[in-house]
Sequence to fold (102 residues):
Amino acid sequence: MPASSVTGMLRSLDPSRSRPYRAPWTVDHRDDRHTLVRNDGHEPADFVRAFLVDGSGAHWGQVLPGEEVVVCLTGVRGQSSRVMLAWYRWRTDDEYCWAFVP
Fold:
């Protein structure tokens, strides 16, 4: 890809917005088919979506601190069991993505 086409996609980070942020999720492997995902953070996670490698997924909406969501993996095996979560940090337009293997 030529440098000129990449330049338009890049933007400088605003240092005033730089702040450490830990992904708020903890995972509890209940059994082979069900995994519990918990928002262990101090703020809601907005517009949360969960995806599997095969493209299937679910929209969870806002997940509040302490809230738990069950991921059902019945019939999912091997590499396709990787779960990816995407969400927006509360009160920002910062989008994050985090993955785990149950």
User: Anything to note?
Assistant: The longest helix spans residues 3-7. The chain is about 5% helix and 45% strand. The chain has a mean pLDDT of 84.
